[in-house]
Design brief:
Elements lengths: L3 H5 L53 H14 L6 H12 L4 H11 L3 H10 L11 E6 L2 H5 L2 H12 L12 E6 L11 E3 L2 E3 L4 H12 L4
Parallel strand pairs: 1-2
Antiparallel strand pairs: 1-3, 3-4
Helix pairs in contact: 2-3, 7-8
The structure holds FE2/S2 (inorganic) cluster.
Length: 216
């Protein structure tokens, strides 16, 4: 498997097309475009002021435990339950907390590796919590041609996260996706359900400023 990170970092001097056309339509297109953390470049990244540890959800606090027990009871003595079980856990907790999956595996006598294998195979499962605002930056062909790579780099730098990650303050999750279906507005990103088109790196940052200030 080719290293897309390496290819992305080769810089503008690389004239040759480095990706298969089909790759550009995969949901998880580009991995981190530059090394992280990039925070020292221009001060602190957004979200870095948040007290450490406050984003960790109490997945197995007493309330979490009792909902997990009820959930496990539903799957006891059943076979081939990995997908519906994980889907239920994700519905309940918003993502798949490591400790919850391990606990469910223990209680149902399923190898934890099997559950994590399923969870990492299907893109519908999330092993990390989502932020309050999910940014979906289009990295499809039309947006790429119109400069979405520069926007991607700027968002990663300013948010201080890699693609797929959430800022420490839990405000933004950054995702790169394939075509959002509004190529005439390229380059495009969605923040939650809102579409923002004809972006530049500066405009994209301004859009996110609006969400940070609660005006989004
Ligand atoms: S390629 Fe970006 S919206 Fe279609």
């Amino acid at each position: 498997m080719r290293d897309l990170t390496l290819e992305a970092n080769l810089g503008p001097q690389r004239k040759k097309r480095t990706r298969d056309h089909a790759d550009e339509h995969l949901p998880r297109v580009a991995r981190p475009l530059q090394p992280f953390p990039p925070r020292s470049a221009q001060g602190r990244a957004w979200g870095s002021h948040r007290p450490k540890g406050t984003m960790t959800p109490p997945s197995l606090d007493p309330k979490g435990h009792s909902s997990l027990r009820a959930l496990i009871a539903r799957y006891r003595d059943r076979r081939g339950v990995a997908i519906p079980l994980l889907a239920d856990i994700q519905r309940q907790f918003g993502y798949l907390p490591h400790d919850v999956v391990e606990e469910a595996a223990r209680a149902l006598d399923i190898p934890a590796a099997e559950l994590f294998g399923v969870a990492t195979f299907y893109s519908m499962f999330r092993l990390k919590p989502l932020g309050k605002h999910v940014i979906r930056l289009c990295r499809g062909t039309a947006c790429h041609v119109q400069g979405s790579l520069r926007i991607a780099e700027e968002l990663q730098r300013r948010l201080g996260v890699a693609e797929g990650d959430t800022t420490e303050d839990g405000l933004f999750t950054l995702q790169f996706v394939a075509c959002l279906g509004c190529c005439s507005l390229a380059p495009v990103m969605m923040v939650g359900e809102d579409v923002h088109g004809r972006l530049t790196p500066e405009k994209a940052i301004k859009v996110l400023d609006g969400y940070r200030e609660g005006k989004g």
